[in-house]
Write a structure and sequence with these properties.
This protein is mainly alpha-helical. The chain is 38% helix and 4% strand.
Length: 475
């Protein structure tokens, strides 16, 4: 027996000696939930909760869930084409026949998900959970600390309301969770709250937020730039009132798609919308020396810059903009993709038009999922004089491909161009010659040559098709 014990002891000593190098415990973090019961912890939690503002603008998730098939945006491809290509299931929600789904994964991500690469949460319910932790722990602070963090409470109420606003716009009625969970819940049954119940809570929270938040404007150089202000909250609150008022008469509608939008019927909603929107207008117009009305240059609202300064965020008419951090570590799956994906409304898939145009940052991201609807174009009724149209939509693209990747004239279009369109003194073109490049420099396109032009064609007075096809660029 003694020999056995000695043998076991020897094995144990050997085991601990052999494992000494790789059994060292590494403390990943020293923070616990108690940290969020302190003033400093709640400051940090509030700042981290702002990431929900990035969700809607980031990449395809925002475009598919909030942009596609609204008044101004439609899919670049028809729904039928996307089904054939496997991008959609026939109903857009169920299992795809030949490829991946689109809508369902984005909805799941919107509800809440953990990124596989960097292991942080994104989506509405993780945001809501963080806000609930803040509000519960805020109630336990001293009176002095509550006063010091009153603005942050207003910001948190805004962010929780915004989270519910996003998810209810996509799925309708949803669970209304107003407390945090320390560990696993007793059960996983969270019944959906009606939109009427939801909006009553959201509007009440936002009224409180408006009272708590400061009425001021932060400049780009301010350390508080990007924080939620009273005017941003009042604007959002007036929008909630308008949403509820719009559907006030649809409680018993025979149309399902209208009835499902009912959020309650309060006689004073429109008056409240006027009151809170006027609060924004009056402050921004009269009491703020940094605000001079609308931006003097409409194009500055959409300017893409090579640096991360994002001066467009500081435009005087913007009430609130989502902020990104320059290292990209905590910006979410796509980082600041909104800078490029936003331009899907304003440019086209210009690289696939055989116009001698390669992908270029000056023309924005060419692989557009969405494109402007006819209504979006027609909203500019005076295109000849409305500079906002030309500062929104690109109409002329210049050749950037030196390999001669451009459409060639055929015999008919070359004849038409030489006879009716060719400027005096310019050499005639020949069948097979590339457009967008000079005849003497056939395979060396330069930025001086137009490769693609968009024009508005009227069904009442349509352009002659041969005239269009014979232009020295793709029209």
């Amino acid at each position: 027996m003694k020999k056995i014990c000695l043998a076991l002891l020897a094995v144990s000593v050997f085991a601990f000696t052999a494992c000494e190098d790789f059994l060292e415990e590494e403390v990943v973090t020293s923070l616990t939930q108690d940290y969020y019961k302190t003033k400093e912890g709640l400051e940090s939690l509030c700042q981290g909760s702002y990431k929900i503002l990035r969700y809607k603008g980031d990449y395809n998730q925002g475009e598919y869930l909030f942009g596609a098939n609204n008044d101004i945006e439609v899919y670049s491809w028809s729904n039928a084409d996307r089904i054939v290509n496997g991008s959609y299931a026939p109903d857009a929600w169920g299992n795809a026949v030949t490829g991946g789904q689109r809508i369902t994964p984005f909805v799941n991500n919107l509800i809440g998900a953990v990124t596989t690469s960097q292991k942080f949460t994104e989506g509405c319910y993780p945001s809501i959970g963080a806000c609930n932790v803040f509000l519960e722990n805020y109630a336990g602070l001293s009176s002095a600390d509550q006063t010091a963090l009153a603005k942050r409470k207003g910001e948190i109420l805004f962010l929780r309301t915004y989270s519910y606003y996003l998810i209810s716009n996509v799925v309708g009625p949803c669970p209304l969770i107003l407390k945090s969970y320390k560990g696993m819940p007793d059960n996983f049954y969270f019944p959906k709250a009606s939109l009427e119940t939801l909006y009553k809570q959201l509007i009440g929270d936002m009224r409180t937020a408006v009272e708590l938040l400061p009425q001021e404007t932060y400049t780009l150089t301010s350390s508080n730039f990007g924080r939620i202000t009273k005017q941003a909250a009042a604007h959002f609150l007036s929008k909630l009132y308008l949403h509820r008022a719009q559907a006030a008469g649809w409680a018993n509608s025979s149309l399902t798609d209208l009835k499902m939008l009912y959020k309650g019927n309060v006689a004073t909603d429109l008056d409240s919308a006027i009151y809170y929107s006027s609060l924004v207008i009056d402050f921004m117009d009269d009491n703020n020396p940094n605000f001079g009305g609308l931006s003097t240059d409409f194009g500055d609202l959409w300017k893409i810059e090579a640096t991360s300064t994002n001066t467009r965020d500081g435009q005087q008419e913007i009430l609130l903009s989502a902020q990104y951090e320059p290292t990209q570590t905590y910006n979410g799956r796509y980082g600041d993709a909104s800078a490029l994906s936003l331009t899907h409304v304003y440019n086209s898939n210009h690289t696939n038009q055989d116009a001698g145009i390669l992908r270029d940052i000056n023309y924005g991201r060419p692989y557009a999922t969405l494109m402007p609807s006819d209504w979006a174009y027609d909203a500019f009724t005076d295109k000849a004089n409305d500079s906002r149209y030309y500062k929104s939509f690109l109409t002329n693209y210049y050749t950037t491909d030196i390999s001669g990747n451009a459409k060639a004239w055929d015999a008919g279009t070359a004849l038409y161009y030489n006879t009716y369109l060719k400027p005096l003194g310019e050499a005639a073109v020949t069948a097979g010659q590339k457009r967008g490049v000079k005849a003497a420099d056939l395979y060396n396109a330069s930025l001086e040559n137009v490769g693609l032009v968009y024009v508005e064609n009227s069904k009442d007075q349509p352009y002659d098709s041969l005239w269009v096809m014979s232009q020295p660029y793709v029209m």
